[in-house]
Design brief:
The structure is a homodimer.
Chain A lengths: L3 H6 L6 H13 L9 H13 L9 E8 L14 H12 L3 H9 L1 E9 L15 E3 L17 H20 L4 E7 L4 H12 L3 H4 L8 H18 L6 H8 L2 H15 L4 E3 L2 H13 L7 E3 L8 H8 L15 H19 L3 H4 L6
Parallel strand pairs in A: 1-2, 1-4, 2-3, 4-5, 5-6
Chain lengths: ~350, ~350
């Protein structure tokens, strides 16, 4: 298994010269200067990531990282913990939101059990060929009483995510979306967001799947207590993950590192995926060059996380499901951007007069 | 040819009962309550438009309405007028932005010559089977000196648009996107926007394809003079179109009326399509029930038009190309919404426990 330090050393920022070359090509397209706005930025960054003026996206996949959370004991979620395992089974059966969106954008869905309570491996489930078991433990510890996991487990969760994403990239996946499942996981995500961005808990902690006012108060208290009890060092991404994170969040951080390491694009989803991205960014700031933010979640803290990473989301449709749905839905925008760059004629080719 | 009055009488608002039925179905989907935000609103409105709980979108098309504008004499555009005909040829050849986006979303592109200066019919152009010639005149008159067209021509442009869109809907197109091409057409669109919404010219008149500061001043003066000279009656959509509009804008108004008349969804594009929609709305306010706003244009006045129609755009990506690109790109979002509604299992089917 590759070590975290090797991974970090293997990541380079994108080469700005490719952005310039791509931008020159954009200027020749038969349309007013940069008239398709952010679509040009997307295609140009893909050129820089792929080091080509013929960017391409063929195979697409979403990797849904699943884990359970000890902090649900503090009454932070509107749903019982068994839902995590039940939803993983729904993903495998093709019946969840992420499956429907992925059929729309022609992406495959894979699920990684990073540490859910349920034991699904070995069961003869429909779709189980799309389940990978990298279970670190059956759920994290309750971080209001101590660290969610050990430093070793935190590193392992990142490396497992890195390995699973790397396999997909090596198998020819051109773009990967990150997804998550884990009842209670907006709570560790908010804790990570608060520690790393410094934004207050009133803004960073939201209703998740839909807790009521009392639930929201319990959730803010749990996050506050988790930070107080564990005192994670803000500059140490691994420690933040260990003390107030989750196994699937570490897995997502690993996916983001894998994208940058293999020089491929990754589309992150909402609140939980972005918490994972904050961990990856803390470990290696250059990862952002390879990231696209699929959407802005309805979860209020998400915008602050994206601002911290200097990422502008592609969609803003009031979504707050997770699973990878926002990232997957945005893949058609990214593919549209690629087509514009590759398929639109130049002024010269079209025989059209440019601006007077 | 059907008369405008018959069309207006044939349009009914959607039945709110279908929205309620659809909303009950949404509540059963295996996810937190309405966790996919606007995707639910889209699918529910499609249920109401199609009067079914099995909404479907199979065949998609974009109808690009093209016309030229006498007001370009006032120096309102950064591009020469010949570009209109040249771009129409680029659409037919498949080399423009709208073609690339439509390949991405699997939609066909049809172009209607509503009144361009160039004479393309009868020429043996590649792709000319996708060109329909409904030329009212080779360009409008300069509206700074009198009406852009006669009332009869205005009505004819709407009826031509209605007929062409109706043919597509009758041929089995499930969703139609409106598009436009016409050098100078942000100027009549801004005039229509200012007259109908009452928003001032400083906000409603923008840079279009990219005029400089002096061009912008000329453009504001032209719109101001056009309104002053013609004094269109704000409550009379046909008169507003005749006095300060354009043939392709009338055609777009006809497309929107056709959607509502045939009870099918229409996705409008940016500034020019929305100006056409303002005309359609002035003639028959119920049309908005059948409309989706594809994106928010970078052209500053667009937001005011959308607000007036009470439409919230699906995308906001800094696009300002027109051609129908924003509407077409949003079709994949709309299709994703349909899949969520139809394909996601219910809590019961998935065997997942709902909220505690």
């Amino acid at each position: 298994m590759m070590k975290l330090e090797e991974i970090r050393k293997g990541i380079q920022p994108i080469d700005r010269q490719w952005l310039d070359r791509a931008s020159e090509k954009t200027a020749q397209l038969v349309m007013p200067k940069r008239a398709l706005g952010r679509l040009h930025e997307i295609s140009e960054r893909l050129c820089a990531i792929q080091r080509t003026l013929q960017p391409s996206i063929r195979r697409k996949a979403v990797l849904v990282m699943a884990g359970d959370h000890g902090v649900v004991n503090a009454g932070v979620s509107a749903y019982p913990q068994e839902v995590t395992g039940a939803m993983v089974q729904t993903f495998l059966a093709g019946g969840a939101g992420i499956n429907a969106i992925c059929r729309q954008v022609d992406a495959e869905v894979f699920v990684v059990d990073m540490g859910i309570k349920a034991e699904l491996s070995g069961l003869d489930l429909p779709g189980s060929d799309h389940l990978v078991t990298r279970k670190i433990a059956p759920g994290t510890a309750d971080f209001t009483r101590g660290p969610a996991m050990s430093l070793q487990e935190a590193e392992q969760s990142i490396l497992f995510g890195f390995e699973e994403a790397s396999k997909l990239y090596q198998d020819g996946v051109d773009i990967l979306g990150t997804g998550d499942m884990g009842i209670g996981n907006t709570t560790p995500s908010a804790a990570i967001g608060a520690v790393i961005t410094g934004v207050g808990l009133d803004k960073m902690v939201g209703r998740g799947t839909g807790v009521d006012d009392e639930g929201l108060t319990r959730k803010r208290k749990a996050v506050s207590r988790g930070i107080e009890v564990n005192k994670p060092a803000v500059e140490n991404g691994l420690e933040v993950l260990a003390k107030v994170g989750g196994f699937e969040i570490g897995g997502i951080a690993g996916c983001v590192l894998a994208a940058a390491f293999h020089r491929r694009p990754v589309v992150i989803d909402g609140f939980i995926s972005t918490a994972g991205s904050l961990i990856a960014h803390a470990l290696c700031p250059a990862v952002v060059d390879y990231m696209f933010a699929g959407h802005c979640s309805e979860e209020s803290g998400h915008r602050y996380m994206l601002d911290y990473l200097n990422l502008d989301p592609l969609l803003d449709l009031g979504m707050r499901l997770g699973e990878g749905t926002g990232g997957a839905l945005s893949m058609s925008i990214i593919e549209g951007a690629v087509r514009i760059f590759r398929e639109v004629l130049t002024f010269e080719e079209a025989g059209v007069a440019d601006k007077e």
